[in-house]
Design a protein that fits this description.
- Chain B: It catalyses: a 2-oxocarboxylate + 2 oxidized [2Fe-2S]-[ferredoxin] + CoA = an acyl-CoA + 2 reduced [2Fe-2S]-[ferredoxin] + CO2 + H(+); 2 oxidized [2Fe-2S]-[ferredoxin] + 2-oxoglutarate + CoA = succinyl-CoA + 2 reduced [2Fe-2S]-[ferredoxin] + CO2 + H(+).
- The complex is a heterodimer of chains A (about 280) and B (about 575).
- By secondary structure, chain A is an alpha/beta fold.
- Chain A has one domain: 3-Layer(aba) Sandwich (Rossmann fold).
- An eight-stranded mixed beta sheet of chain A has the order 2-1-3-4-6-5-8-7, sandwiched between helices.
- In chain A, strand 5, helix 6 and strand 6 form a beta-alpha-beta unit.
- In chain A, helix 1 packs across helix 6, helix 3 packs across helix 4 and helix 5 packs antiparallel against helix 8.
- Chain B is of the alpha/beta class.
- Chain B has four domains: about 180 residues, Pyruvate-ferredoxin oxidoreductase, PFOR, domain III (Pyruvate-ferredoxin Oxidoreductase, domain 3, 3-Layer(aba) Sandwich), CATH 3.40.920.10; about 170 residues, Rossmann fold (3-Layer(aba) Sandwich); about 70 residues, no CATH class; about 110 residues, Rossmann fold (3-Layer(aba) Sandwich), CATH 3.40.50.920.
- Chain B has 19 helices and 23 strands.
- In chain B, strands 6-5-4-1-3-2-14-7 form an eight-stranded mixed beta sheet, with helices on both faces. A seven-stranded mixed beta sheet of chain B has the order 9-8-10-11-13-12-21, sandwiched between helices. A five-stranded mixed beta sheet of chain B has the order 18-20-19-22-23, sandwiched between helices.
- The longest helix of chain B has 21 residues.
- Chain B starts with a strand and ends with a helix.
- The chains are: A alpha/beta (about 280), B alpha/beta (about 575).
- Chains A and B meet through strand 2, helix 2, helix 4 and helix 9 of A and strand 7, helix 8, strand 8, helix 9 and helix 10 of B.
- Strand 2 of chain A pairs parallel with strand 17 of chain B, so a sheet runs across the interface.
- Bound molecules: thiamine diphosphate and iron/sulfur cluster.
- The site of iron/sulfur cluster (SF4) has 11 residues of chain A, from loops.
- The site of thiamine diphosphate (TPP) has 17 residues of chain A, from helix 3.
Amino acid sequence: MPTSEDYKGQVPAWCPGCGNFNILSTVEEALVELGIEPREVLMVSGIGQSGKLPHYTKCHTFNGLHGRTLPVATAAKLANHSLHVIAVAGDGDCYGEGGNHFLHAIRRNPNITLLVHDNQIYGLTKGQASPTTAQGTHTKIQPYGVLEEPLNPLALAISQDCSFVARGFAGDPGYLKELMKAAISHKGFSLLDILQPCVTFNKINTFRWYRDRVYKLEEEYDPYNRLKAFERSLEWGDKIPNGIFYKNERETLEEGIPTIQEKPLVRQKFSIEDVKHEIDKFY
Amino acid sequence: MEYTLRVGGEAGQGLQTIGGALAQVFSKIGFHVFTHQDYMSRVRGGHNFYQIRFSEKEISASRDMVDILLALDLDTIEIHRKSVRDDGFILYDSEITKKKFEEPEFIDIPFKKIALDVGKKSVMANTVATGAALGILDLGLETFRNVLRKAFEKKGDEVIQGNIACAEAGYNYARKNCPRCEAPEIREPENRRLMLIDGVNAIGMGALMSGCKFYSGYPMTPSTGILNYMASRAEEYNLVVEQVEDEISAINMAIGASFAGVRAMTGTSGGGFALMVEGLSLAGMTETPIVIAEMQRPGPATGLPTRTEQADLLFVLYAAHGEFPRVIFEPGDPKQAFYLTNRAFELAEKYQIPVFIQSDQYLGDTEWTYEKFGLENIIYNDYRLREKDLEGVEVYKRFKYSSTGISLLAVPGEAGKHLVVADSDEHDEEGHIIEDSETRIKMVQKRMLKKLPLIKKEIEPPLLYGDSSPKIVLVGRGSTYGVIKEVVDTISKDHKVAMMHFSQVYPLPERDKFDYIELLENADLTICIENTATGQFAKLMRAETGFEFSHQILRYDGRPFTIENLKEELHAYI
Ligand SMILES: Cc1ncc(C[n+]2csc(CCOP(=O)(O)OP(=O)(O)O)c2C)c(N)n1
Ligand code: SF4
């Protein structure tokens, strides 16, 4: 069985007090509790403070480009579906630069987990508005305040029938871990949007601000009811629900591809003998 | 002996069916065949043609003049009448054209009526027309019957018999009503059969036979043919082919699949490649092997979607930020496309770099005939460490420094206890982010400076064809190979002339095996021939070697060079 020690990576270079620390320790604990070894995990990330998380753990890692996490993660899963593939992204990374890939990953439904560090700001580039920043927020680039409506990732994902949609809060690591385990165990594309205070640049959505607002979805809440889920995903303001909003059981991308049912693609040995009669088709 | 047929009509009339069937018939009889297509960017209407040249001798280009014009509409007659040779024929159906022509070269054949009478279906008019063309040539129908049987295998016996009957009716009608074609005297080559293949299929088959297991792409003419090919073979050969949301995803997917341990490829045309550029740089930084087919069409922007040009060379060469090695191949014919695609995979894997197969619409769509490709020269070395390979290794570092710059490429999940870490940020030997200058210097040396000289040594010299110490050298690259070769053949009686063809264009070959620069310097006339407006290869030669061509012949109207038109252009100089 793996231990948390097995997952300890480099020393994080995040600001002291950043919400990312709790996400990091939660990921490690969730994987340990699920009994998954580091060599069974591939973490793929983009660019941003979130993108560094895989470096701070120990597992296979591909830290690619800003916004391009999902294509890399999806293809890696197709190449070797015996790996647990976890995509790690920021709100700018995933909903801004990578918005198109986000939509299409939901459609494809690969069995991967997407963790979004949603701090409603650009951290790494020092405090510009992100797609989830509240309307009216002032930044150096938005002197009149953000004019756009914030993007609602949960509502968007539910509207597209995403296989698993949940929200957690970095300030409640206990519950976050439960959600993370559920997301990783879910068969299909699972989105876990994590409210992550950026203590340096986001002066509005602080730990305190969230603590006063977040609450858990009720015990009797039915995550299989899509319309209800959509309704609950619109709640934002004085009260912000956390939990598993929506789930469905869809065929995954890998399950739909007949050529990898017997064996992961990567284990299929190649020999020219197997393909040489192809020439005859042109003869 | 040689003949050229041109089948013309609107998109959607089945030109490809007729042209493709005729090309197959000729190649199965044993003739050398060269076909090319000219089509507009529309699904129906417009004017398109499919041209087939066949000969007893090897051929490698198209002619402007045709022997037989098979006109499926009036436009075709009006546009191409002047290209028909004096002793040639124009086959048409006056019911379709609504106009009757009395000149001796015209043969009016009721394609539609025969199809309805004999096959009970008007769609079979195409088969009637194909049969008629074969009738004019007096080539017999046996091979065509087999082609039809194969083509309609899935549709059942009734369809097969209907088509065969239509072919016979068209054939017989043409023979009876062709006063001028008593004896075409075509001798059939004996006991010979040739394979027939176009550029896109050759690239696809090259990838397949190199162990490519993953192909991601977004449709864009003229690269779509490769995507089609790979998808059509997916089930049979256990491939994963993904049509993605955009080209950004296409290249990132190829990188993800390659990182996870399988050979991966993506393909696109210029506009799509513009979107891939950031991902190209990622492959460079993470040293992930990938093969990219860049099928050129005229630009800028969406340009002429279905036409041809070679103007993306410098774009592909200089695309992406930062410095990292890359290789660019430009095959001259489908056979080179096949073997160079294999070589592209070999170099990509060996050096952990991106390698390009750069081609264009012209080569992508032209069909050529060959003796069956041999597989003995196909290379397959698996450079990745899998399963047992890392047993006994204490520490594995993905980007370990080495004298060659190449580090061991382990497969995540198959590396035992070892972890594989890659990063788009500058990183240390283990793959983790760094910012110090010492590591940066060492990594640049590893990725770029150490690998580059080794890669250069792998590049083959250009092909010299014709006179071995020529006074006139016609220089080309990529798809101009065939036409330059035939032009050299036709003018070599009167001149000491040779073709120098580059199919491995970057890095330029070294001069130790063959000092091609010296050969060029010793010639009186060196002419660089390109489908670009600015002579991009000539520029590259000057930049890399200091050599300057005495002249350039450039074509940039979206059409390929033909034998006649290149010869005419050459008149200005020789
Ligand atoms: C193509 C590209 N554009 C811009 C950047 C610069 N950049 C780096 S991180 C980032 C935004 C990060 O914000 P977010 O994804 O919300 O992550 P956070 O740092 O807040 O975790 C940007 C714009 C980049 N690296 N690549
Ligand atoms: S800038 Fe914000 S998100 Fe980034 S490390 Fe600091 S607190 Fe965390």
